[in-house]
């Protein structure tokens, strides 16, 4: 176990923000992490767990220790008549894990193809895309308590998953490091083709029998056409959550824009795409020089090169203020602000 000092985090966050960590250490297994957590440096300083850095905005240098999860390994732990129970180390790259499952005919993760980041972060905000969230295939996870080093397993109910939410962002915030996650994947695939343009994309592919690999390809095509590739343009995906608003607020928007998109959540509430609100407020494609709003997806803020996290944060505040004044809707940031 080594602890490095004054490390640049620029290559560790997909926004490509230049910021430093006072201390930095990577761990490859539970024992080395336990040892790390017992060091004085870990006990006396703030800690930041890092996966792929694809859902964070670094607004300043981090005056504590960054703990980089590099626990690898994928294991078929168990199977029954209907399911495979597959465990992946928290440091596995999410998309590589999805491809591994597709390769082995473990069905259920294909709609979540090409999401950046690592397996260990996937339960943090219950990652979701194209009609599937990990809660739909989640079985359990193992975590270590950051304060006293105890190990604990969390089942589905205990994670309290919601839309871009889990217990790890709320009650248990900053208490646990997720070591590995077990997914309950299907032997007989249940295909989810209902979301947005998946059906259309599959039609273009002109297939006889649709497989989980085809769904993955369709999702990859759609995502590549509208989301910026972080290796080319710094970003962290959707910067805001899609707000859930009372029906009256949505009706009022519809009164002024009769084509306003909205998805009923229940009898009284509607989820409105934040991308639509931000676009209508005039921010889509806004270029502020070193940073701005993506021109194909208004929900994505981008670093064209050399922007500071503070500048991007300020842009997000301007957008929140403007959407509030124009639509009476409060946008909430999805990205973790560090
Ligand atoms: P990081 O950014 O490293 O960490 C995120 C948070 O989790 C931080 O608070 C960190 O401290 C904590 N954390 C990380 N690992 C652990 C661990 N092992 N234990 C405890 N805490 C931990 N998200 C979606 O849900 N759906 C999408 O469709 C989607 N599309 C995206 C597209 C692009 C182009 C980008 C850049 C991002 C997208 N995201 C999406 C967001 C992001 O990819 C996910 O949130 C991903 O799960 C973050 O993983 P990470 O390893 O990069 O996490
Ligand atoms: N829209 C616009 N203008 C835009 C962007 C979107 O009008 O610039 C409207 C359109 O009406 C479109 C609707 O928003 O039909 C939905 O757009 P899209 O399908 O691109 O999805 P989204 O709601 O913008 C969400 C997730 C994404 C996820 C996709 C696909 C959130 C905050 N974002 O985006 O997740 O990949 O759906 O399921 O829920 C992420 O979390 O980082 C992320 C990228």
Q: How would you sum up this structure in a few lines?
A:
With 338 residues, the protein is an alpha+beta fold.
Overall CATH class of the largest domain? Alpha Beta
Shape assignment: globular
N-to-C series of helices and strands: EEHHEEEEEHEEEEHEHHEEHEEHEEHE
Q: In total, how many domains does the architecture comprise?
A: 3
Give the N-terminus to C-terminus distance in angstroms. Answer: 25 Å
**What is the second-level CATH architecture of the largest domain?**
2-Layer Sandwich
Question: What order do the strands of the largest sheet run in, or round the barrel if closed?
Answer: 6-7-12-10-11
The main sheet comes to: 5 strands, antiparallel
Q: Name the beta content range.
A: 25-35%
Percent range for helical residues? Answer: 25-40%
Q: What's the Cα radius of gyration?
A: 21 Å
Q: What small molecules does the structure contain?
A: flavin-adenine dinucleotide, uridine-diphosphate-2(N-acetylglucosaminyl) butyric acid
Q: Give a count of the beta strands, DSSP E runs of length 2 or more.
A: 19
Low-confidence stretches: none
Number of continuous helical runs: 9
Explain what the structure shows.
The chain has 338 residues and is α+β, with helices and mostly antiparallel strands. It folds into 3 domains: 4-69, 2-Layer Sandwich (Uridine Diphospho-n-acetylenolpyruvylglucosamine Reductase, domain 2); 74-186, Uridine Diphospho-n-acetylenolpyruvylglucosamine Reductase, domain 3 (2-Layer Sandwich); 234-337, UDP-N-acetylenolpyruvoylglucosamine reductase, C-terminal domain (Uridine Diphospho-n-acetylenolpyruvylglucosamine Reductase, domain 1, Alpha-Beta Complex), CATH 3.90.78.10. The protein has 9 helices and 19 strands. The chain has helices spanning 30-37, 40-44, 94-103, 156-159, 198-205, 212-226, 247-256, 274-280, 309-327; strands at residues 4-8, 20-27, 47-50, 56-57, 62-69, 74-79, 83-89, 128-129, 132-133, 138-145, 151-155, 176-186, 234-238, 244-246, 263-264, 269-271, 291-293, 300-303, 336-337. Strands 6-7-12-10-11 form a 5-stranded antiparallel β-sheet. A 4-stranded mixed β-sheet has the order 1-2-5-3. The protein has a 3-stranded antiparallel β-sheet with strand order 13-18-17, covered by helices on one side. α5 (198-205) crosses α6. The protein is globular, with a radius of gyration of 21 Å. The mean pLDDT is 97. It binds flavin-adenine dinucleotide and uridine-diphosphate-2(N-acetylglucosaminyl) butyric acid (EPU).
